[in-house]
Amino acid sequence: MKFTSTDNIEVDRQDQQKINSFSRLNMQYHELIRLNQARKDELVRLSDGKDEMELMDDDEKIPYKFGDSFIRVNVEKARTLIDEQVIQIKKQFEEDTKKIEETLKSMNNLKAKLYAKFGSQINLDDE
């Protein structure tokens, strides 16, 4: 049976739960994408900062942001801290990339089920 835009399909409790789950997954997906983009930007900033430090003496003291404050460390220590930060950010990026894949898989599964029942009467695509 083909549905037209005038067909009314009953939305039962399970359907509403699927729609709500899809909505939560969609919000989670977009938040993870935003976080990973911010991590990419941070990696670029850290790389640029490390490149700038190459021109400095190893014993020179520079401000290094630690939490919400700045501490003065020598250039060699700052390089080490940046390397540690890069490793941590890359690890978080990889973990969130896996979460993105899992979330997208769940979203596609729900989307298929909902489109199978509601057809063109429901729009689950991003605009």
From TrEMBL:
Role: Binds specifically to cytosolic chaperonin (c-CPN) and transfers target proteins to it. Binds to nascent polypeptide chain and promotes folding in an environment in which there are many competing pathways for nonnative proteins.
The leader peptide range reads none
Record text on subunit structure and interactions: Heterohexamer of two PFD-alpha type and four PFD-beta type subunits.
Question: One short Pfam family name for this protein?
Answer: Prefoldin_2
Which Gene Ontology terms of cellular component type are present? Answer: cytoplasm; prefoldin complex
The protein's name: Prefoldin subunit 4
InterPro entries, A to Z? PFD_beta-like, PFDN4
Gene Ontology terms for molecular function: unfolded protein binding
In the record, the note on similarity to other proteins reads:
Belongs to the prefoldin subunit beta family.
Which GO annotations describe the biological process of this protein? Answer: protein folding
Q: Which UniProt keywords apply?
A: Chaperone
